[in-house]
Every structure is written in C-alpha cells, then in structure tokens.
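To whoever is on call:

I kicked off a structure prediction for a single chain this morning and the downstream step that reads the tokens threw a length-mismatch warning. I double-checked the sequence; it's 271 residues and nothing unusual in it as far as I can see. Pasting both halves so you can look.
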Amino acid sequence: MKKIFNFISAVVRFTLFFMWTIPFFIVALFVPRGTAFGTKFLRFFMQGEMFIAGVRVRVHGKLSDARPLLIVGNHISIFEFATFPVAFGNSFFAKKEMESFPLVGWLSAKFGVTYIDRRPSQAIAALATVRNKMARATWPMVLFPEGTTTNGAYVREFKSTLFNFLETENGIEGATIQPVVQFYRRRDGTKISDVDMAEHYAYFNNRDQTFGPHASVERSWVAQLFHVFAMGGMTVEIHVLPPPPLAGIKDRKELAVYLHKIVSDKYMEFK
C-alpha cells in the first residue's frame, strides 16, 4: 500500500513540477540572457520546484559580501542546479554537455548559467568566457570543480583546468573563493548510508566512480527526478565555510588541491 501511495504521490509531484515550468518558460522568452533579474527569478522559480519536489534546503553559515565571488562545492546530483540558487541566489558555470538537455539547457542559459566547453581546442575561448562572466557578475557564481557528479561516498579530485581564469603571473587573483559543503539527508533529517545514497539519491555514471558503491540502475535525469519524488523528497544541508587565504598559492594546480582538501575533509566529517 505504501509503495502505491508513494507512486501516486510521485506522479502528482512530477506533473506539478513540469507544470510549474510553463510560467518560467514564458518569462524566459522576454528576459535578456544573463541578467540580475534572471538570477533573482531563477531563485524564485527553484523555490517553487523544490517545494513541489519535497526537497528542503538548509543553509548553515553566511556568504561573503565580496564580489566577484566564486562558490566552490561538491557535486552529488542534478538537484544542485535548484538547491544552490535557492540557498544563494547564484548562477553557475556548467559543462557544455548540459546545454543540450531538453528545455533545461536553454532555460538555464537564459537565467545566467554559463556553459564551458572543456575540449582542449576550445580552451582559449572558454577562458575568455569565464573571465568575462566573473568580471560582470554582481551575484555569486558556483563552480563544481569535480567536473561531474559522484555517488556521494566521497569528493572527487578537483580539476585544476577549471581554475584557469584565476591564474595570473602574480599567483591566484580575480575573485574571492568561498568553499561550501553539501550533503543529503532523508526528508526527516536522518542520515543516508553510502549504499542508499548511490542507489536512490545521487545521480552519476558508475564508470566514473573511483570509490564507494555503484547503482544497480543508472537512470536518466528525468527518471532520477521521479525516483526522488517517489522516495518522498529529501533534505539538503549546505555548510558555508570561510573564504580561505589564497596568499602563497602559486597556480591553479595548487589551488585545486588546496580547495579539494577543505571541501573533502568537511564532507567526510559531516556526511
């Protein structure tokens, strides 16, 4: 009986979830790409989506008022593209492949998401795009330096190439960096085991994982949304850590290792 109820509830939530995108789509037709209004409306829209989905977002700590501000965090699933705007009113740097997601890619770009082409042949153009975005953004920008999602059992090494735009002859410059650590709990706040995280809540490719359990079923992003709805939603806890001192960090590789240790150590402590 409980499974039937959960399935019916998921169908209702799933329907409402996509119905809520209709006004978002209409507004997107008239909003200039990448504006402050767009990021504010994205936050409002995602608050509605997470309410429908049964996803609670709890933030511990406060963001720096410095701008430009780059938020760096761990990446577990597609839900980060909703929960982080709800928490911070930010936009994102995301991998180019996401731009091809039906509807989501176009809508996200309209509301401030900047897609980065990570192919070596596009490195110069990608670097210029990111630097231009950071120079103009009056809202926080989020980067997931792992480059992909994980099964939630660990934090992957950070890709140093994603920090190219901060590397100068004088060391690391161009933005205040604020690390955040996010982890998932069940809707009632209880912990989720690594096995259950991989099986039900995280969104990832088994072949990309270097540690921890695999999922018995690899779902599409749409199927993963529905599955979390059927699980009754979840609680996302986000801990904001102080901006670390960057003096003495020579290059992007050292920065990636430095930030990874901060985020990874806290994640393993909290999860």
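Update from on-call: the warning came from a stale cache, not from the record. Cleared it. Sanity check on the structure: The radius of gyration is 18 Å.
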